[in-house]
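Cross-check.
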Amino acid sequence: MSFAQSVLSPWLLVLCAAVSLALLAWLMTLRPWQALVNDTALQHRWLAATLGVVVLWQLRAQAVDWLTLHLVFTTLLLLLFKAPLALVSNVLVNVAMVAIGRNDWTLLGVNVLVTGIVPAVVVGLVWRFVDRKLPDNIMLFMFVCGFFGSALATLAGGLSAVGLILIGSQDAHAILLAKEYARFLPLLMPAEAFITGMLLIILMVYHPHWVATFNDQRYIDSQ
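Predicted model, tokenized:
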């Protein structure tokens, strides 16, 4: 779920933009581009994944002009490239949506927050839990991170979008529609979880070294 046109108060747009910019500035201090500079194959995978998400975001349901339902793929990006590169990809995807006229540029900060930062935080916490608390079992990694983590991230992103409308919109009709859209979240959750989980499984079987959050020596070789 993301915004295409603004129904939010200007103060909330500025606040979301400031939060997104502050977090991205902090991520830049981690120098995520260094991994790309040193690995040509990673450059190709990251760019291909980013472009693929741009294309897949065109498959969307939009009953009203200002709010769209679509798959996000932040979970898959984070599991493949970890948080810094995944969020840079999300920013580029959102910029592409603005460039092709899909979304209003004033909503860039809000959409990065809703489709990138919030889902990434949720998936990051799920991955940390699996990495530190659960046994070294490949099935647990696949299902908890790939399926459950993706569904939970989709729910968090959707609820954050609805919450922003409830606290930052003066349009009573928009608030009513946001509550109605919230009912569609259970339909998005299994779709995102299934696609993300299946792609993750395929990559872990054929190219486990492509999944940055997956340690094949720990989950496969040591078993």
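The chain has nine helices and three strands. The first strand starts at residue 2 and ends at 3. Passed to J.P. for a second look.
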